[in-house]
Amino acid sequence: MCNNCKGKYYITTAIAYTSGRPHIGNTYEIVLTDAIARYKRQQGYDVFFQTGTDEHGQKIEEKAKEAGITPKEFVDNIAGIVRKNFDMMNTSYDYFVRTTDDYHEKQVQKIFKKLYEQGDIYKSTYEGMYCTPCESFWTESQLVDGKCPDCGRPVKKATEEAYFFNLQKYSPRLIEHIETHPEFIQPESRKNEMINNFLKPGLQDLCVSRTSFKWGIPVDFDPDHVVYVWIDALSNYITSLGFDVDGNHGENYKKYWPADVHIIGKDILRFHTIYWPIMLMALGEPLPKQVFGHPWLLVGDGKMSKSKGNAIYADELVHYFGVDAVRYFVLHEMPFAQDGTITWDLMVERVNSDLANVLGNLVNRTISMQNKYFHGVISNPMEGDPLDAELIELAVATVHNVDEKMDQLRVGEAIDEIFTLLKRCNKYIDETTPWTLGKDETKKDRLATVLYNLLESIRYAAVLLESFMPETSEKILDQLSTSRRDKASLESFGQLECGHTVEAKPSILFQRIDPKEFMETLEADKQKEAKQAAQKEVTKEKGKEEITIEDFTKVELKVGTILSAEKHPKADRLLVEQIDLGDEVRQIVSGIASTFKPEEVVGKKVVVVSNLKPVKLRGVESQGMILCASNDTDLDIVSIAKDLPNGTKVS
Question: Among residues 470, 490, 510, which one ends one of the domains?
Answer without folding.
Answer: 490
